[in-house]
């Protein structure tokens, strides 16, 4: 088996129990299709919530991918799983500090505990390879003020820190998953800039991010622009109404395969090490489930091939195809990230992120005050009902007020938790991140002054 490349597959399976339609049929069909191919070295799945589904996929892929890990997080699990043919050295799951609000039952992000899951693999050429799998917070969209995506920004920052730390330990890093963000957004900028990641799709399709280019058809959006979500070709999104930008682009590119080299450690200064470069990246599973009239998931899958280039095989930059996105393909946030040296957040990214988190902090503070006011009102209402109960004119009124009291008590308790416990937790997460960013900003300014001298 060739050890000069790594083939990776990632997909959001949409596998929530009782909610996702045809969940069992779709996941079994996906497992069956994946088991027919021996090309994949790593398979990372998101929204694989049900453990029995994980067991089925694991059993189907065990002949070629014998190593597997299902990650637990939150009340309902992280929904993340990794399957690989390389030996697993260690595993870790980092639940994001913020994953929505407890009162947002419909969204459900707070209950599932979205996280950055990772395995450290023993690779025969690269040594330690850390593979990360994630699914970022969903709500917030791409338009409007950045504070709407504050929880997603926190997740992006935490994932970038983990990836950067892994690279500073001398590991190669690959990060895949559903990032719920299109390439031009701030969360992707944070991840790419701070972690120093290369985007497999942009490396192999260097002009797909050109802002003036619009796909000519839904299939063109998939083939040339990497659209994986909200595609008219997908049965689960076909016929739905989307914002003008999504409709114009025939969907969104939400799923990614990022990679980077390890940072050169002091004792390796000047040494040559193997390098990674994506040579192929394509959207997969755009067809319907065999024998059915529905797609495998509400997302398409993404496959990437990353070549391992030995120092002696590396061509001079002028003689090779461009590995970095061209200037034309770069969006407002992107930065070159193929270097083994640390990348840094740009001034624009730092400034906008700090502003967004500061605004989100103030909004959280105002919301907590309103929720605590509702709690106090509930206490007053309950007290009034209890005090006045002996003077009820008819006995049949008492059961009605008992039900009313239970509802008011439940709502008051919820507001107390939301306004006090969760509110403090949320603001602490904002402040911790703001302070980290300010320290980082000052360090960059000091380094800039030192270099100027």
Automatic annotation (TrEMBL):
Pathway assigned to this chain's UniProt record: Sphingolipid metabolism; Lipid metabolism; sphingolipid metabolism
Keywords assigned by UniProt, alphabetized: Hydrolase, Lipid metabolism, Magnesium, Membrane, Metal-binding, Sphingolipid metabolism, Transmembrane, Transmembrane helix
Pfam families hit by this protein: Exo_endo_phos (PF03372)
TM segment ranges: 372-391, 397-417
GO cellular component, one term: membrane
One BP term from GO: sphingolipid metabolic process
Residues in Endonuclease/exonuclease/phosphatase domain copies: 10-299
SUPFAM superfamilies linked: DNase I-like
Topology relative to the membrane: Multi-pass membrane protein
GO molecular function, one term: sphingomyelin phosphodiesterase activity
Chief subcellular location: membrane
Keyword Magnesium: yes
Compartments (UniProt record): Membrane
Assigned protein family: Belongs to the neutral sphingomyelinase family.
UniProt name for this protein: DNase I-like protein
